[in-house]
Amino acid sequence: MPGAVQPLIDRARQRTTPCGSGELVWHVWGTAQPGVAPLVMLHGGSGSWTHWVRNIDALVAAGRELWLPDLPGFGASAPPPLGTDADALVEPLRAGLQALLGEQPVDLVGFSFGGLTAGLLLAAHPALAQRLVLVGAPAMGVVPQRQFELKAWRHLEDPEAQRAVHRHNLAALMLYDPQQIEGLALDLHVANMHQDRMPGRRLAGTDILARSLPRIPCPVHAIYGRYDAVYLDYMEPLATAYAAAAPDFRGMTLIEEAGHWVQFEQARDFNAALLAALGD
Question: In this protein, which residues make up the domain named AB hydrolase-1 (predicted)?
Fold first, then answer.
């Protein structure tokens, strides 16, 4: 793991719950406050809790207790017992949340693949959360075909050749500003990619999130980077799809000068938007 995240690791508490033949690893920051729900944040595909590395301190300073799992099959967590897509993560997450937090409803935030996972989780178990914030979530069914192309890297033996592909993929999908690719973003991305044990994911290209939202009664907010490569010129149809699907949709916030990994690229603006949504 890049050394820049070591201070966060040193301050975290770690908990585990069962997952398949191993453990689901949860990283916890902050202190529980009376009357304030735990804030559970699900990272994106081929990622880990480090997708939130630039948000943790601000959210803890705002008085929130954070519960950030490495999703099953990513980071330090074991793969789920069955399946290799978001639907396979629902039951390990449900069981983990109930084991750690009991029946207390949480505030749930999901980024990208984690947003899709959060939607499936609450559609199946709506009492788990009192509020849902979806960040760069796919599977809303408004884009006729994928708007970006990624390159393969696992067949390459040379680490520098691999890093060159990771740079390309960060630019193609994750970040709007190419100057942010080198350094921490690239180091985190490379580390996370090597821990991805969930191949063959396909649900992100469907409309399964849009079909799940009608079963989620709690308030739903959406936050996207203005230049998110998943949607590009489809932001208006996306907002319309949310309003049509979620019974209590509270609106979609667009963060300027940001791509898909909005919470990393424009952390200050994202943190403000997230705290506003959580306070709604």
Answer: 39-273
Give residue 37's Cα distance to chain centre. Answer: 19
3-class DSSP string for 41-56: EECCCCCCHHHHCCCH
- In the prediction, which pLDDT does 81 show? 95
Residue 39 neighbours by CB under 8 Å, 6+ apart = 59, 64, 65, 66, 67, 106, 107, 109, 278
pLDDT (tens digit per residue) in 102-145 = 999 999 999 999 999 999 999 999 999 999 999 999 999 999 88
Residue with tokens 């804030």: 39
**Which residue ranges of the chain lie beneath pLDDT 50?**
none
In this prediction, residue 158 carries a pLDDT of 94
Record the tokens describing residue 150, joined without a space: 């990624």
Q: What fold, for 3-147+200-278?
A: Rossmann fold (3.40.50)
Quote the CA–CA distance of 159 and 191 in Å, as a whole number.
12
For residue 175, the one-letter residue type is: L
pLDDT of residue 187: 96
Predicted confidence at residue 4, as pLDDT, reads 76
Q: How many other CB atoms are found less than 10 A from the CB of residue 195?
A: 15
Dihedral pair phi/psi, residue 51, rounded to 5°? -60, -20
- From the list 86, 82, 94, 101, the residue with the least C-alpha distance to 15 is 101
According to DSSP, the residues that pair with 29 across neighbouring strands are: 66
- Name the DSSP class of 30: S
> Are the beta carbons of 42 and 109 closer than 8 angstroms?
yes
